[in-house]
Design goal:
The structure holds 2 protein chains of 2 kinds.
Chain A (H helix, E strand, L loop, with lengths): L3 H21 L3 H26 L3 H31 L13
Helix pairs in contact in A: 1-2, 2-3
Chain B lengths: L3 H16 L5 H27 L8 E11 L2 E9 L1 H24 L5 H23 L3 H19 L6 H32 L4 H9 L9 H16 L8 H4 L5 H10 L4 H8 L1 H5 L2 H22 L5 H21 L3 H28 L17 H15 L5 H15 L3 H26 L10 H4 L11 H16 L14 H6 L13 H10 L1 H27 L3 H8 L1 H8 L4 H48 L7 H20 L2
Antiparallel strand pairs in B: 1-2
The chains are: A mainly alpha, B mainly alpha.
């Protein structure tokens, strides 16, 4: 029987993978996917806590996160498309104008 | 009713300042004059109401609102009419109305917008002056006090394209500011000492104290208020602005710088008579300054060649008389002289205005002469004014001036009496020098631009009706105003002084006018003798002027040539302006320009501000390199930040 710590370890692992993906990958789409992985890592820990504490709060939060994540993905992809049209590239390093 | 008195001119100001430039001249000048007439009507009604009060009630008040209230400090916006302010509101509204009417004629050559600007200032002045005299406490009075100062500045500099006028306005404003500082300090000290600013309450509280034997707080208050009064009323050492103020239009000189505003200082002392009575040392200073100013300004008036400047020095001199009266405790006599002086000095100024108007702006006495036949109305009214100010028996100035001189003598100040009597001699000389130079003798008029001077076929035109009527009314006033205060010795009742007496006493002390009555009884033959001396001197002065300037022209020049030093000294106004410039203006300017501007302002204050700016720019310049624009670098920094913060809380 898997305990709370197993779930949290898996969640931490997934979060680490996602964060590594965001920082290291050089493709905007992949970075968005990595963010999704991070979000789902968090969702997993919410569910685990909710189950462990016997309270519905964790699940409710997850529903929120899922809806917001859907919106975020839509907006994020729209921005990526707009950027691509602008520079013809998906490499984040080609966007270097955000500086003072 | 009381509120209406200052409000009507204020409404006139609002109308003329908002809509005046679009109104024809007749309407803007007419509205302004009607506002003054309305205020005069309201004043008469209010004074009648005051007279109808039961015995023992000497004031009616109108509480408009609480102006502000902070802890113990409570300032109501209250107007109060008592005998003293009755005299003042009647003078201000009555003479003010006449001068408004006169101005409609005098300023007729101005463009309509300028014309409306002039009348809006004049109405605003009247509103503030009425607020000043009706105020029931120091702060409301201060509003009026500063307001009339502002209007004085605006009107002196009315022809602001002329540099001399603009400078004179600034000078008047700044010199007055010196006095105002002392005034506001006096008000603050009054509040600290008495805990109230209401005139009646201050008088009551002061009455409960013993008079200062040494120089105490009450003396300090009185001295500060007096310094304030010297600024507004052009006394030594702050008189220098008044002669320069003659750069303004002549009716302004008549209204503000002769009849009303400059008497505010005298009024201030009369209003706080109880306070001053408890500071005998300050009263002595007041009397000495008054007498010194009277003599000094009279001497300067002897040699001036500008018709308005002679009158200006005469005003300073007469104000000195009023302060002399205040200083010897003859408050009623001082206000009486204020009252009569308002008539004949306004008359003299308006008469000189008519001369200047007829000569298209010529003000130099040496280029006048022989105007008697061309300007009959002006001549005869001017002559009445000159006789009145010289103190010829039967005219207004005689009664008030002799009252002052008698009181001075009777209170034991013989030296001051000699100074005052000498001044009255000088008054007669310089006034008749003016009359003879301007109106008699051969014609020196050199038309600078002949068509402008004599549009009616070669001869000068006398004052138009709008200017002549005020002259005649004022001449009438200059004759009869004195009969309000005929002293007992001449079988008069001295009604004015009896009427005024309650204003100079604390409100609670019931037995009014007892001291005054005792004083009147003590006069007798002494008073008569002094009167005769003064009258003889006045006649001698006129005779001297006639000899110098009428029968033997050139005598004056010979006398001047015999005492060249003295003559130059007087002609250059005693070099007082130059001394002030060297002693005060230049050091202040040097201090301001060197250490304060280049030293403190530029290096320290600007340095600090610019230094902070430079530090921010430098820091920003180095820190901005952190922002690379690379999105992944930002993401890493966010991650590192989150891990750091979480790590801190987890492993703390």
């Amino acid at each position: 029987m898997a305990g709370l710590n197993h779930y949290l370890a898996l969640s931490g692992l997934l979060f680490g993978i996602g964060a590594t993906g965001v920082v290291l990958r050089r493709n905007l789409i992949t970075m968005l996917l990595s963010i999704e992985v991070m979000l789902n890592a968090v969702n997993l820990s919410f569910i685990a806590f909710g189950r462990f504490l016997g309270a519905p709060d964790g699940q409710i939060i997850v529903f929120f996160v899922v809806t917001v994540a859907a919106a975020e993905a839509a907006v994020g992809l729209a921005i990526v498309i707009a950027l691509f049209r602008h520079v013809e590239s998906l490499n984040p390093d080609s966007f270097r104008e955000l500086k003072g | 009713m009381l509120l209406l008195i200052p409000l009507l001119p204020f409404l006139g100001f609002v109308l003329n300042s908002l809509a005046g430039r679009r109104l024809p001249r007749e309407l803007s000048g007419g509205c302004a004059s009607m506002a003054m007439l309305g205020a005069f009507g309201a004043s008469v009604a209010a004074v009648r109401q005051l007279a109808a009060q039961p015995a023992g009630v000497h004031a009616i008040s109108y509480h408009a609102m609480t102006w502000f209230s902070s802890g113990d400090f409570d300032v109501p916006f209250t107007l109060r009419l008592d005998p003293l302010s009755s005299v003042m509101v009647l003078v201000v509204t009555g003479i003010g109305f006449l001068i408004h009417v006169y101005s409609t004629g005098y300023m007729h050559e101005e463009r309509p917008s300028e014309y409306a600007r002039y009348f809006s200032y004049l109405n605003l002045f009247a509103a503030f002056m009425l607020l000043l005299v009706l105020a029931a406490n120091f702060l409301v009075m201060f509003v009026g006090w500063e307001g009339v100062g502002l209007c004085s500045y605006l009107l002196i500099g009315f022809w602001y394209q002329k540099p001399a006028a603009a400078d004179a306005g600034k000078k008047a404003f700044i010199v007055n500011r010196v006095g105002d500082v002392a005034f506001i300090l006096g008000v603050l000290l009054t509040f600290v000492h008495f805990g109230t600013l209401d005139f009646q309450e201050v008088a009551g509280a002061a009455n409960a104290l013993a008079p200062d034997t040494s120089f105490g707080t009450v003396s300090a208050i009185a001295l500060l208020l007096f310094i304030g009064a010297t600024g507004k009323s052009a006394q030594i050492p702050l008189y220098v602005w008044l002669p320069d103020a003659m750069e303004g239009p002549t009716p302004v000189s008549a209204l503000i710088h002769a009849a009303t505003m400059v008497t505010a200082g005298v009024y201030l002392i009369g209003r706080n008579a109880v306070l001053f009575a408890h500071a005998p040392q300050v009263l002595l200073i007041v009397a000495m300054i008054g007498a010194a100013t009277a003599l000094w300004a009279g001497a300067l008036g002897l040699v001036q060649n500008d018709i308005k400047r002679v009158l200006a020095y005469s005003t300073v001199s007469q104000l000195g008389y009023m302060f002399l009266a205040m200083g010897v405790g003859a408050y009623g006599a001082g206000i009486f002289h204020l009252f009569t002086h308002a008539f004949f000095k306004a008359l003299l100024f308006l008469g000189s205005g008519a001369v200047i108007h007829a000569l298209a702006g010529e003000q130099d006495l040496r280029r006048m002469g022989g105007l008697k036949h061309d300007l009959p109305v002006t001549y005869w009214t001017f002559l009445v004014g000159a006789l009145a100010i010289a103190g010829i028996p039967g005219l207004a100035g005689f009664f008030s001036k002799d009252e002052i001189l008698f009181r001075t003598f009777a209170s034991g100040h013989q030296v001051l009496w000699i100074v005052g009597t000498l001044t009255s001699f000088l008054t007669a000389v310089y006034m008749f020098r003016l009359v003879f130079m301007a109106f008699h003798g051969p014609r020196h008029v050199e038309p600078r631009d002949a068509p402008a001077i004599a549009p009616h076929g070669g001869h000068l035109h006398d004052a138009p009706p709008s200017m002549a009527v005020p002259l005649v009314v004022l001449a009438f006033g200059s004759i009869v105003a004195g009969y309000l205060g005929v002293p007992a010795i001449l079988h008069g009742a001295n009604r004015l002084e009896r009427f005024l007496a309650p204003s100079f006493e604390a409100p609670s002390s019931g037995g009014a006018a007892s001291a005054q009555a005792a004083m009147e009884a003590g006069g007798g033959s002494l008073e008569l003798a002094l009167m005769i001396v003064a009258s003889i001197l006045a006649l001698a002065g006129i005779a001297l002027a006639a000899r110098f300037y009428l029968t033997r022209p050139g005598t004056a020049d010979r006398v001047a040539a015999r005492f060249p030093g003295l003559y130059r000294f007087l002609l250059n106004k005693g070099y007082v302006d130059e001394i002030y410039d060297e002693a005060i203006v230049q050091p202040v300017r040097a201090l301001a320009e060197g250490p304060l501007w280049r030293g403190l302002d530029v290096t320290v204050i600007d340095g600090a501000v610019n230094g902070i700016g430079a530090i921010v720019v430098e820091t920003g310049g180095s820190v901005r390199k952190v922002q690379t624009g690379s999105m992944r670098a930002y993401a890493v920094s966010v991650l590192v930040g989150v891990v750091t913060i979480l790590g801190y809380y987890v492993w703390r």
